[in-house]
User: What shape does this take?
Amino acid sequence: MSTDTRTPVRPAPVPRQPKPMVFDAPRSTSSLITLWTFMVLPFVALVVAVPIAWGWGLTALDATMAVVAYLITGFGVTVGF
Assistant: This one.
């Protein structure tokens, strides 16, 4: 009867090299138009809406509160990711 309690040890596996980065194919014109529309149109609408609404209920206090809420939300989402 053997009293040897050693277990055979296998060598550590060789770490895999990271795959090289593959760049996406160029985007189609329709996808770029859609992207820029969704990025630019809301800002343009805001710029147009503020002067129109300024005399009819929109005050500096309202604009300041909106900007502060926007910044708090933006930083909160950024920290969350």
